[in-house]
C-alpha cells in the first residue's frame, strides 16, 4: 500500500508543469466561457430589442393598412353614389332632350299649320279686300258650307 501511495505522489510531483498548464488552461476556458456567456447575453438583448421594434413596426403597418382599407371602402361607397347620381343625371338629361325634341316638333307643326292657315286666308281673302268685303265673303262661305252639310 505504501508503495502505491509513493508511486502516486511521485507521478504527481513529476509533472508540476503539467499541473500548472492544466490549471492555466482551466482558467482560460473559464474566462472564455464567461466571455461567451456575456456575448450571448448581449446578442440576446439586441435581438430582443430588434424583435420589440419589429413588432411595433408591424403593429403600425397593420394600423396604417386598416386605415387605408377603411378609406378605400369609404371611397368605393362614394364612387358608387357618384356613379348612381351620374346615371340618374344622364337618364334625366336624356328624358329632357326627348321632351325638348317632342316640343320642338310640336312647335314646328304649329308653325307649319299657322303658315298654312295664313296661306289659306290670303287665298280666300286677298289683301285688296276691304274688311266689309271679307266679312261678307265669310258670311257667304258659312252659308254654303252649312247648306252643303245638309
UniProtKB/TrEMBL annotation:
Residue ranges, compositional bias (Basic and acidic residues): 131-143
Coiled-coil zones: 19-113
Region (Disordered): 130-150
Keywords of the record: Coiled coil
The protein's name: Uncharacterized protein
Natural source organism: Nesidiocoris tenuis
Amino acid at each position: 500500500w505504501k508503495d502505491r501511495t509513493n508511486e502516486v505522489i511521485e507521478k504527481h510531483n513529476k509533472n508540476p508543469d503539467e499541473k500548472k498548464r492544466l490549471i492555466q488552461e482551466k482558467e482560460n476556458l473559464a474566462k472564455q466561457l464567461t466571455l461567451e456567456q456575456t456575448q450571448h447575453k448581449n446578442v440576446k438583448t439586441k435581438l430582443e430589442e430588434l424583435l420589440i421594434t419589429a413588432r411595433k413596426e408591424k403593429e403600425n403597418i397593420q394600423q396604417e393598412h386598416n386605415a387605408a382599407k377603411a378609406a378605400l371602402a369609404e371611397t368605393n361607397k362614394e364612387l358608387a353614389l357618384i356613379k348612381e347620381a351620374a346615371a340618374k343625371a344622364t337618364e334625366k338629361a336624356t328624358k329632357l332632350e326627348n321632351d325638348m325634341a317632342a316640343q320642338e316638333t310640336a312647335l314646328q307643326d304649329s308653325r307649319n299649320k299657322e303658315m298654312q292657315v295664313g296661306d289659306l286666308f290670303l287665298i280666300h281673302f286677298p289683301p285688296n279686300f276691304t274688311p266689309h268685303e271679307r266679312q261678307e265673303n265669310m258670311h257667304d262661305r258659312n252659308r254654303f258650307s252649312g247648306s252643303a252639310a245638309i
